Each structure stands twice: as structure tokens, then as C-alpha cells.
Amino acid sequence: MKAVKSARKPADIFFRNKYIHRSVMLEVVAAVPGMVSGLIHHIKSLQGMCHDGDWMGHLLHEAENERMHLMTWMEISKPVMWERALIATVQTGFFVIFSLLYMVSPHTAHCVVGYLEEEAVTSYTHFIGKIDAGRIENVKAPEIAVAYWNLDPESTLRDVVLAVRADEALHRDTNHHFSDRIRAKRESLFEDMDTNSNKPHIKY
User: Fold this and answer.
1) How far is CA 185 from CA 18, 31, 151, 152, 178, in A?
2) What are the residue ranges of helices labelled H in the chain?
């Protein structure tokens, strides 16, 4: 937790009150874990010729959701070439580091993602505060955001930030839950359905 919080300080110094640019960098990192962990579960499932416990769908949905966050902020911020190069560099570095971490300790990896998502929720809360204070213009929401979150056509930037923050809060709780399940050696999500009629008929 302390390591994740300490990583926030350079971002605070670099971005200061540029919350849209900060959001781009946040989502560049946040879009990686779901895809990496989903891919590793996929490969393990193939190699072991067994079901993955229903993790892949959740993880890949998270990756797609975070990717749409990034597409939304890219539409608003319109990053220039050097910013795109920085984004690609950061994403590549984090991809390598997180992949290694997940292969060594999935429990730790999900725990780290949970704390990263907590920091994301905090950042978006500050973002909303700046909009409410009039320090960031509450512009019209981009069409990509309106379509993805099924927002009202007259929605604004504040509505988009609220939707993104809600997603991040869900990812925070989900990753902490996954981390706890791994530590408790209850990795199959089917176990939660053992006491109700929705239990799958096929045993894996």
C-alpha cells in the first residue's frame, strides 16, 4: 500500500492540476492488469486442460472497460506526438513488470491493482472537486462516453468522471476480492454457486 501511494507523488508533481492528462496516464496503466492476468489464466487453462474457475471473463471485461476509459480521455485531451510516445513507453514498462509479478505472485499482483484502483478513485474524486470549484471547464461529454455508458446526450465532463470513478471503485473491490480468494485457496468462482440453483451442471 505504501509503495503504491509513494508512486503517486511523482504524478502529483508532474501533472499538478492537469487532471485530464493525469487520467490518460492512469488508464494507460490500469488497462494492462486485466489483459495480462486474463491471458495468463487462459494459457494455464489450456496447458492444464481444465477450466479456469470463471476468471477470464471478469478479467477481460475489466481490461476492456479500462481501455474505454483511455479512449474517452484521449478523445478529450488530444495528446500530441511526444505525449503518445510517453504513454507507449510507460505502458510497455508496466506490462513487463506486471507480467512478471503476476507469474510470481498473483495474490500480490491483484492486491497491488486493488490499491492502484483506490488511488484512481481518489484522483477522480479530486477531479470532480476541481470541476465543481470551476477550475476545470465542465465541457460536453464526448460521444464515445455517451454511447459507452449510455449517458444522456446532454451529459457533461462531470458525468463522465462520475461514471469512470464508479468503474474504478468496482475494479478496486474486485481485485481485493480476487487477492483474498487466492490467499484462501478458493480460486474457483463456481464455489460461490454451490449453495444455490445457479450452480453449473458440468463439474470441472
Assistant:
1) 42, 26, 40, 43, 10
2) 2-15, 19-48, 56-77, 81-104, 106-132, 143-149, 157-183
Q: Residue holding cell 476541481?
A: 130
- How many beta carbons lie within 10 A of that of residue 5, not counting itself? 12
Quickly tell me which residue has 485530464 as its cell: 20
Distance from C-alpha of 174 to C-alpha of 169, rounded to nearest angstrom: 9
pLDDT means over runs of 10, the chain (204 residues): 52 59 87 94 88 86 95 89 85 95 96 94 94 95 96 96 96 94 82 56 39
Q: Which long-range contacts (CB under 8 A, 24 or more apart) does 142-146 make?
A: 142/72, 142/75, 142/76, 144/68, 144/71, 144/72, 144/75, 145/72, 145/75
Residues 116-154 as b or e (16 or more Cβ within 10 Å = b): bbbbbbebbeebbeebeeeebeeeebbeebbebbebeee
At what angle are helices 19-48 and 2-15 packed, to 10 degrees?
140
Angstrom distance (rounded) from CA 107 to CA 127: 30
